[in-house]
Specification:
Length: 658
């Protein structure tokens, strides 16, 4: 799963050569491929036809005297401007002549941040060398971006720019658009003629992007229910169909550079799961919830990207019946959930064009509980203290559910408070699930692994021991004095805590050592971290300027104080060459590198875009194992793992295969 999520991030790098601010985007339409766009609502802020930078003073005065509802932009329409040299290239880094470069300004419209062309001059065209000089206002009421496009070549991201005090140079890379075609269906075999299809920018595929693609206006389906469109590359969109008050479910669309994909969108009621929900005694369960999720959602063509399946919810009527619309054919797991009862067992249901409205019956279960006593090792009771139960994902009937929506409804954190004698009774637990018990001590709470690693529901008389003494950690950093030239010589130590099995949280970050000493003395630097819960697992990351970050652990805390020595060493470098199947260097490929560790927060993913040489460099790496992969369009490489030590430079080659 880590690889799929991680590569989702770097796949976008093939569509973004420069970083850009993630924003809601320009409401102006993209040119559709073949299909027609619906005439969207008129935009009173749409600027007049752009003029060249050499527009006459009289023309400027005329525009300022009759601005199209953009009075607030007048103060900087004629403001002092700084020149910015822009170079436009295609994704093979070849110069693009005749590209249109537009200066955009970020403004709020109806409480949403969007992009509008800045006041004239706002548009320029590249010369035969793919270059032009853009005049950027030095004082603006909002952030500015540069955007480039050339028909037949592609579009760039919106690259953030500022009013410069000195002449600057910006390179904009054009990528082929993602071509998306599809069909909207009203029922099985019945196309939805004249239905609308909407695309909304969900986000950039790059974690470090500062950009958003353009949002098209709604499309209208043709006489056979089809639509076609071109989307700016390197972004992730939501797509859905609607016809009047009928609004279909949303689906992910990944706009990979140069890709072509086919969508099938369904209007509400086209595909449904119908049935009834019963209480344990057999009567109808009224006004309760029925939940469903896709067990195997369709995946995008982007290598390594995983799409979360739809998570759906509907309420039963007074007779306990329900109708649950689903977004597309597939296999769904359906679960009933009722207040005061345990969720039903999940029932797999196949929805397809041959069976568009399958029926199912769900039965709620009687809830269970866990009871016991919380005491210290000395025998004294721990009174009036919260104790929580969280179900283990691998030990429950609905282990396949992921995402916060599923966690909220199917994995609630149940809590009770101990009495004067330390006794507790945690209610409303699922009878077929196992649980971990935790007490909310410290910044994130602490799982009681040492005494109750997994507790089946229905357990009674459980004796939960709380240690008399908490744990503490003495961290010794050796070699940190190598950063003597830094203006911030003190190293940092960050502690990560596995608060629930498999889930890590940072709990302590300190840069104030217990024995600071002199940063240039060469003596080890010491930190002390307290309030560790015995039996819980922890990880450390240590860092000092000029040295590679080190990861130590995981280890299990014990009562009393432990000492851990971490040696910080010179950073390492990975040099990566990306080639095609014939061994030729590949420009504009996205290369991804991450540290291998069970704590996802310490993966520290990085991504680079290859230049014309096809080679990139990852520096400032700490010792340890890493994994790398590359992607461009639909071509990808295999994952490669490599171990680095302090102060070395390693090289490797990644070959892209279609």
């Amino acid at each position: 799963m880590k690889g799929r999520i991680a590569l989702a991030v770097f796949a976008c790098a093939t569509a973004l050569a420069v970083a850009v601010l993630m924003l809601p985007s320009d409401p102006s339409p993209l040119a559709p491929i073949g299909g027609s766009t619906a005439p969207g609502p008129s935009n009173p802020r749409q600027p007049a036809e752009p003029r060249s930078p050499e527009a006459s003073p009289a023309a400027v005065r005329e525009e300022r005297a009759n601005p199209p509802a953009r009075g607030e932009l007048q103060p900087y329409a004629a403001a002092k401007r700084a020149p910015v040299d822009v170079e436009v290239v295609d994704w093979d880094l070849r110069e693009v002549a005749g590209a249109r470069v537009t200066l955009l300004v970020e403004e709020y419209q109806d409480a949403v941040l969007v992009d509008f062309p800045a006041p004239s001059p706002n548009t320029w065209e590249t010369d035969g060398r793919g270059r032009c000089t853009v005049l950027v206002p030095e004082e603006t009421p909002g952030p500015l971006s540069l955007f480039a496009e050339r028909e037949g070549v592609g579009t760039s991201g919106k690259t953030r720019t500022l009013g410069y005090g000195r002449r600057a140079t910006v390179r904009l890379v054009l990528f082929p658009p993602a071509r998306v075609a599809g069909r909207v269906l009203r029922e099985v075999g019945i196309p939805a003629l004249g239905a609308s299809v909407r695309f909304f920018l969900e986000g950039s595929l790059a974690q470090d992007a500062r950009d958003g693609g353009r949002i098209p206006r709604p499309l209208k389906t043709d006489q056979v229910g089809r639509f076609e469109i071109a989307l700016d590359a390197g972004h992730r969109y939501w797509a859905w169909a609607y016809d009047g008050d009928q609004i279909g479910e949303r689906t992910y669309v990944y706009a990979d550079a140069g890709s072509s994909q086919e969508l099938r969108l369904w209007l509400p009621g086209s595909l449904t799961i119908v049935g009834k929900l019963l209480e344990p005694a057999g009567g109808p369960s009224r006004r309760e919830s029925v939940l469903a999720w896709e067990e195997d959602p369709p995946q995008p063509i982007t290598p390594g990207i995983g799409t979360p399946g739809a998570f759906l919810r509907v309420s039963t009527d007074d007779s306990g019946r329900f109708t649950l619309p689903v977004p597309r054919p597939g296999r769904y797991a359906v679960v009933g959930s009722g207040d005061g009862f345990a969720s039903s067992l999940p029932v797999p249901v196949d929805v397809d064009e041959g069976n568009p409205h399958p029926e199912v019956t769900l039965s709620l279960l009687q809830p269970a509980w866990i009871s016991g006593r919380l005491r210290r090792e000395s025998g004294s009771s721990v009174k009036n203290t919260p104790i929580q139960a969280v179900s283990l994902r691998e030990g429950e009937p609905y282990a396949g559910v992921s995402g916060q929506t599923g966690l909220e409804h199917l994995r609630p954190r149940m809590e009770a408070r101990t009495g004067e004698d330390g006794s507790f009774r945690i209610l409303r637990l699922h009878p077929l699930a196992t649980y971990t018990l935790s007490i909310p001590w410290g910044p994130q709470g602490s799982e009681l692994r040492a005494v109750a690693r997994s507790v089946p529901a229905g357990t009674e008389g459980l004796e939960v021991l709380v240690p008399e003494e908490m744990g503490a950690l003495s961290v010794v950093l050796e070699g940190s004095s190598a950063s003597s030239e830094s203006t911030h010589p003190r190293p940092l130590v960050e502690l990560w805590h596995e608060t629930v099995l498999g889930h890590w949280e940072p709990v302590v970050k300190t840069g104030s050592p217990r024995e600071p000493g002199s940063p240039h003395s060469g003596a080890p630097v010491r930190f002390r971290i307290g309030d560790l819960f015995p039996g819980d697992r922890y990880l450390l990351e240590a860092w000092a300027p000029g040295l590679g970050p080190a990861v130590e652990g995981p280890w299990t805390a014990k009562p009393g104080e432990q000492e851990i020595v971490i040696s910080l060493v010179s950073p390492s470098t990975l040099e990566v060459e990306v080639t095609d199947a014939d061994g030729r260097p590949v420009p504009c490929a996205g290369v991804f590198c991450e540290r291998i560790t069970e704590c996802e927060g310490l993966n520290r993913p990085e991504r680079r875009i290859t230049p014309a040489s096809g080679a990139v460099r990852f520096g400032e790496l700490g010792p340890g194992p890493y994994r790398l992969a590359a992607v461009r369009g639909t071509a990808r490489s295999e994952w490669r793992e490599i171990e680095v030590r302090g102060g070395e430079t390693r090289t490797l080659s990644l070959s892209l295969e279609p």
